[in-house]
Amino acid sequence: MLAIFLKTLPFFAIIGLGFWAGRSRFFTAEATAFLTKFVFYFPLSAMLFGFASNLSLTSIFEPRFVAAYLLASFTLYALVLTVARLRGLGWPEGAMEAHAAVSGNTGFLGVPMLVLLLGPAAAGPVMMVLTVDMVIFSSLITLIITGAREGQLRLATLGALGRGLLANPMIVSIVLGFVWSGLALPLPDVVNEFMTLLGAAATPCALFAIGASLAGRKADRLVLAGWISFAKLVIHPGLVAIAALMIFAVDPFAAGVMIAAAALPVAGNVFILAQHYGVAPQRVSTAILISTAVSVLTVSAVIALVGPLVGKL
């Protein structure tokens, strides 16, 4: 466990450095926003395209893998939503808590950290988790909130969802990478070197941006945020482990990567959605802060537990 902790510590140390820079105002909120935008559109997209262009969709799209992740995630989603409804919350608030509980920081933290720790073969499973989260659960929260407020779902809502997915650079880069791979087209050396150089900036910049963005958050509704964090960091990977290893018998390596990805803290983009819809933004913000801080220990523990499955560490 100590050895794993020491391997993951540098990643969280960069997050801590970003937090200090934001808290001390060395990095302003505006600077953090631009850094996040830079990572989102350029180095992270280059990294994802590079991974996808060297893989084929058929080689990583395993129905049992997707089924296991969806079963575990929907089970947790239903649990958190039910608890929220029993507390007297409406559908929008309950769905936002459930969305936070199943949506991990896979793009900014999971992809760079797990690929470096578990090896290049982890890229495929991590990207599948990222794609499912973005396509399925980001769409679901929008549909639930819109349907609850308007009393119905309109075609315009579905059209907006489609346009949002097509405008997401992470989805676009993954799809383009798979298309390039499917066409069996070699990347020119100069393009490959450009993408590699740009993608190399993704890991440190993304981690720094996570920390800097956390600096502006204030802890509030600690009990509720603590429940969401517990659901994300402990229950989610536990349910994924049960579904992947006991129900669907997913390949051990892919299962280990999926479990590690499920243990990641609450994704920062959940706050963007919460703020956009005006649904529990402070609660979600606190959950992001708590889960990220605690994940220094919990992610290390989960990676140590899945070590025998992935043959690493």
Strand content: under 5%
The profile of the biggest β sheet is:
none
Task: State the shape.
Answer: globular
Radius of gyration: 19 Å
Helicity range? over 70%
Please identify the structural class as seen in this structure. mainly alpha
Q: Gap between N and C termini, in Å?
A: 10 Å
Describe this structure in words.
With 313 residues, the protein is mainly α. It is 81% helix and 0% strand. It has 16 helices and no strands. 47% of the residues are buried.
Main features:
313 residues, mainly alpha, 16 helices, 81% helix
Brief sketch in words of this structure:
The protein has 16 helices and no strands. The chain has 313 residues and is mostly helical.
Element layout with pairings:
Layout: H1 2-23, H2 29-41, H3 43-53, H4 57-60, H5 63-86, H6 91-102, H7 106-118, H8 123-150, H9 155-166, H10 169-182, H11 189-199, H12 202-214, H13 222-247, H14 252-262, H15 269-277, H16 281-310
